[in-house]
């Protein structure tokens, strides 16, 4: 169960930025997993090869991936955003190939691990958990709370929600839609960079895991119903726990299949996903 919560916490952080873009920019950014992988390898490069403290390397990776996401959003997606979600989706596939090509040019194939991971077992309320795993859970909680406060307690959140609801109306009311889009890409990139750091804290990383990660992110998003922040939290925890518990019965290599089987089962019972009722209420 503990490992399931840890896995779910990582999935929450990995999916929040993806869900934020899909809600505001109105398309599925398949390249999000490449940003996550980029965050993991920037952290590895700075902490292992350059000898930086892991915390400083991770923070730098978050900033670097946030800026990379902003550049991709401005240069690639913004000029074609009027072309529709299908065109943007296809463009994101092209971005996947570009980013992955750059990564594989810079990094030799292999398995890499962070130095300085805290594997010491701690006793928290009778539950034994490593320091790194506890940090992953804490990062997920902090990310959810921070994003919730931004969306509900700040002017940026008000402008973001207005743009997501009706971009033309928001622009007519004086909202700088281009600036809001840039801020969304910065937040989504920062969350992707943080997810990359957490991915490295969970275990080994390699250049070929982004496809597996985007499948899990899509699973969480579909299960959540592309709805509220809390839908992503519930879906991430549910999938994390189910996939980890499933390894007690079937080989770990089938965890992605278990995730999609769980998505299919839930959607058969609740076609709009976990947060479907909440989304209907907000739209009414």
Structural overview:
It is a single chain. The chain has 284 residues and is mainly α. It has one domain (9-207). It has helices at 2-24, 32-49, 54-77, 85-106, 131-153, 155-165, 167-172, 177-202, 210-224, 229-246, 255-269, 276-283, and strands at residues 121-124, 127-130. A hairpin with a 2-residue loop joins β1 and β2. It is globular, with a radius of gyration of 19 Å. The chain starts with a helix and ends with a helix. Residues 277-284 have low confidence and may be disordered.
Summarize the structure.
This protein has helices spanning 2-24, 32-49, 54-77, 85-106, 131-153, 155-165, 167-172, 177-202, 210-224, 229-246, 255-269, 276-283, and strands at 121-124, 127-130. By secondary structure, it is an all-alpha fold. The chain has one domain (9-207).
Q: What's the SSE pattern?
A: HHHHEEHHHHHHHH
Largest sheet: 2 strands, antiparallel
Tell me the overall shape. globular
Rg computed from alpha carbons, rounded to a whole number of angstroms: 19 Å
- Percent helix range: over 70%
Task: Return residue spans where pLDDT drops below 50 for at least 5 consecutive residues.
Answer: 277-284
Total helical elements: 12
Mean pLDDT metric = 88
Main β-sheet, spatial strand arrangement: 1-2
Strand content: under 5%
Number of strands: 2
């Amino acid at each position: 169960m503990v490992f399931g919560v840890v896995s779910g916490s990582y999935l929450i952080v990995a999916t929040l930025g993806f869900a934020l873009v899909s809600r505001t920019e109105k398309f599925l950014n398949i390249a999000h997993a490449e940003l996550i992988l980029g965050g993991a390898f920037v952290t590895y490069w700075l902490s292992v090869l350059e000898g930086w403290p892991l915390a400083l390397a991770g923070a730098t990776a978050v900033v670097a991936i946030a800026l990379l996401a902003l550049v991709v959003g401005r240069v690639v997606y913004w000029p074609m955003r009027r072309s529709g979600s299908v065109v943007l989706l296809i463009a994101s596939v092209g971005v996947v190939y570009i980013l992955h090509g750059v990564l594989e040019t810079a990094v030799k194939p292999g398995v890499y691990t962070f130095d300085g991971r805290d594997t010491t077992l701690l006793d928290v309320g009778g539950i034994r958990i490593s320091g790194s795993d506890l940090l992953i859970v804490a990062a997920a909680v902090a990310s959810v709370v921070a994003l919730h406060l931004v969306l509900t307690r700040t002017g940026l959140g008000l402008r973001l929600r207005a743009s997501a609801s009706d971009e033309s109306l928001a622009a007519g009311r004086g909202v700088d839609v281009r600036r809001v889009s840039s801020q969304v890409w910065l937040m989504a990139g920062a969350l992707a960079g943080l997810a990359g750091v957490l991915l490295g804290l969970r275990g080994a990383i390699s250049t070929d895991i982004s496809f597996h990660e985007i499948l899990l992110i899509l699973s969480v998003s579909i299960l959540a119903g592309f709805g509220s922040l809390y839908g992503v939290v519930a879906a991430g925890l549910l999938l994390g726990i189910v996939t980890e518990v499933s390894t007690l019965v079937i080989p770990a290599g089938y965890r992605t299949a278990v995730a999609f089987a769980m998505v299919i089962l839930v959607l058969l019972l609740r076609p709009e996903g976990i947060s479907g009722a909440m989304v209907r209420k907000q739209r009414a």
